[in-house]
Amino acid sequence: MNKSDLIKVAHLLKSARHVGVLTGAGISAESGIPTFRDSQTGLWANFKVEDLATREAFECNPDFVWQWHVARRIMLINTFPNPGHRVIAWLADAVDQLTLITQNVDGLHQAAGSPIVHELHGNIKRTKCFKYGHPIEQSLADNHPDSPPECPVCGSLARPDVVWFGEVLPTKVFGIANDATIHADLFFVIGTSGHVQPAAAFGLMALESGATVVVINPDPDSAIPGGMFLQGLSGVVLPQLVKHGWGIPASVFQDQVSTRKF
Ligand code: BV8
Known about the structure:
Blueprint: H1 3-15, E1 19-23, H2 49-52, H3 55-60, H4 62-76, H5 83-94, E2 98-102, H6 108-112, E3 118-119, E4 122-129, E5 135-136, H7 138-142, E6 158-162, H8 171-183, E7 186-190, H9 202-208, E8 212-217, E9 228-231, H10 234-246
Parallel strand pairs: 1-2, 1-7, 2-3, 7-8, 8-9
Antiparallel strand pairs: 4-5, 4-6
Helix pairs in contact: 1-10, 5-10, 8-9
The structure holds ligand BV8.
């Protein structure tokens, strides 16, 4: 990682008027959650997320898609925020304005204490019904590990409250994300491969609106032309930005027990 760029970004962060942050699966990797481009495991090893996370896949084989989401929810039970999540939560009070937008559905930003999390793709720990989106009690969902229960209101099948491929993003969240790309003077793109639209376009949109865009990722291919690139793990780079910007040691963000029930 280029030290002078790191120090430059740290000073930009300290003096920023409005910081936009877009995160992807990579920010949860150090919490032990496999990213999407890592291979799928178990029963779903031979399937691409893009083929599983769709309405059609659910209609064709509801039990199989339901069990994939149940397995991912169970995997989340013993995972906790890492220093990357904790720094972003700390920044919410440290900078003038911070807009956090995540593609992730794991709830770890909330568990780290981020006060406002805009979830572009929903949250896997919430359940709704397939037909009308009626909220469904999580206890009812958890009591049906093999087959989705029926919605008590309309009788249609329960499904995870996440945005599948081919489904539109929640309008309000999408609007907030768009606004942040227009108004932020500093826009971070952290832990995303930039494969999935429309989230993948936000970094470039912020750049075109005149923001300084900073990509944080171990993979140089994720860099955005015209933006800055800090190569490394978000759980390492983000604490370094706080150290160089505020003089707070990185150890402060290590191994805290999450302040909020996960
Ligand atoms: C939509 C929820 C309107 C489910 C997910 C153009 C415009 C609009 C739509 C499209 C378009 N082109 C194509 C489309 C259709 C589609 C799409 O994008 N398809 C892709 C496959 C090409 N988009 C949609 O359908 C979206 N809907 O636009 O509605 C519409 C409707 C119909 C037709 C047209 C338009 C809905 C997309 C939402 C899909 N749902 N998730 C669930 O999670 O269970 S997306 C899924 O992928 C996750 O949310 C995930 O977050 C997301 C993106 O992946 P990443 O987060 O980037 O993860 P990935 O593994 O790819 O990368 C990880 C990165 O982390 C890597 O770069 C790695 O190097 C890095 N990393 C690893 N470790 C670390 C790290 N970085 C930092 N630190 C580390 N330690």
